[in-house]
Design brief:
single chain; alpha/beta; Aspartate Aminotransferase, domain 1; Aspartate Aminotransferase, domain 2; 2 domains; four-stranded mixed beta sheet; 17 strands; globular
Length: 400
């Protein structure tokens, strides 16, 4: 089928939950994708920070093929070898002690919310259940993670929201401290807000948050669904700071494109759940964990976090060089290869021009261009993307 046929069929049969582009992607390799009409695009969206090692990495493809011939699924009533191996890899390379596997970032965050409440209930009894999150945060689309998300636009129409959440300004330690009460059991934060416009937590802020958690005996939980797995220049985003969380969540980049999420817990938090208190049918299944082992092996073995740091610095420097000639650029920020270009105008026009020129980027918060290329993207392809973005910005400035 061509693009028009797929789009027409999709509009008829698929729920309208996304503002989709007018073409269908059918193939990917490395940093490139192709649509159904054969058009080629440099992909700096990466499935929204999913394809951290590019599309269809040969090690991931091989792992999926081999596992598909052995065992696709079995219940978590039994031990699953690749699940155990993947858990060990995560623990060996992080502050974590135990891992719970699920299917998505929202599910991982949902598990973290349950864990925090159960941890506090076991230690202090009922009534200590509130979780503090940040304004402009994004933690998922389930009812609990929607309530945890500090953005009213995502919550509209789904009220009443699940109780037990408070929102405070991001990077404001004083506001956070004032929000803590005897009912608080945890603080849930993104080290780098991706959907919220690519805002990074400061070192001083994160250290202060950790101190508050220790002082009040509440859990520090970090949502690394978008920022983890090498994206920020470290294997795990918390490693950019001089702190260790009690809980952190992973998803997106973990499976190389195969859906998988992980809830990683440390210390006492790692032993909160007992049999029957939390579960998932498909979480940690043989196929997904085999793909994730291959993905994590590539990220660690090819030192992709270090590459992300160097390439991210390069990308920001080049984009900042446009600022004097393009007054619509307000800021360029980010960490590693998660970069935001804030504009003074709506960003959709720039996004659309880039697309027409063969580059995929996306826009968040209406005015922030979000760039999340594969961590192993070449400098040649980075330069190509930068050149197209520069051309698009220039066109918009001239026709503003």
């Amino acid at each position: 089928m061509n693009n028009d046929m797929i789009v027409k069929m999709g509009e008829e049969y698929v729920m309208n939950t996304y503002s989709r582009h007018s073409y269908a992607l059918v193939r990917g390799k490395g940093s490139y994708v192709w649509d159904a009409d054969g058009n080629k695009y440099l992909d700096m969206v990466s499935g929204i920070a999913v394809n951290n090692i590019g599309h269809c990495h040969p090690r991931v493809v091989k792992a999926i093929k081999e596992q598909a011939e052995l065992l696709l699924h079995c219940s978590n009533l039994y031990w699953i070898e690749p699940q155990v191996q993947l858990a060990k890899m995560i623990v060996d390379n992080s502050c974590g002690d135990k891992v719970f596997f699920c299917n998505s970032g929202a599910e991982a965050n949902e598990g973290a919310i349950k864990l925090a409440r159960k941890w506090s209930y076991e230690k202090y009894g009922p009534g200590r259940y509130e979780i503090i999150t940040a304004l402009n945060s994004f933690h998922g689309r389930t009812l609990a993670t929607l309530a945890a998300t500090g953005q009213a636009k995502y919550q509209k129409g789904f009220e009443p929201l699940m109780p037990g959440f408070k929102y405070v300004p991001y990077n404001d330690l004083e506001a956070l401290e004032k929000a803590i009460t005897p009912q608080t059991c945890a603080i849930l934060l993104e080290p780098l807000q991706g959907e919220g416009g690519v805002h990074q937590a400061s070192l001083q802020y994160m250290e202060g948050v950790k101190e508050l958690c220790e002082e009040h005996d509440i859990l520090l939980m970090l949502d690394e669904v978008q920022a983890g797995l090498g994206r920020t220049g470290e294997l795990f985003a918390y490693q950019n700071y001089r702190i260790e969380p009690d809980v952190f969540t992973l998803a997106k980049g973990l499976g190389g494109g195969v859906p998988i999420g992980a809830l990683v817990a440390c210390g006492d938090a790692a032993n909160v759940f007992g049999p029957g208190q939390h579960a998932t049918t498909f979480g940690g299944n043989p196929l997904a964990t085999a793909a994730a082992i291959a993905t994590l092996t590539v990220i660690i073995g090819e030192k992709l976090p270090r590459q992300a740091k160097g390439k991210g610095d390069y990308l920001k420097e080049k984009l900042l060089s446009f600022k004097n000639q393009m007054p619509i650029i307000k800021d360029v920020r980010g960490l590693g290869l998660l970069t935001g270009v804030e504009l003074s105008i709506e960003g959709k026009k720039v996004q659309d021009i880039c697309q027409e020129k063969g580059l995929l980027i996306n826009c968040v918060q209406s005015k922030v261009l979000r760039l999340a290329p594969p961590l192993n993207i070449s400098y040649e392809d980075l330069d190509k993307g930068i050149e197209i973005i520069g051309e698009a910005l220039k066109m918009v400035c001239e026709n503003k």
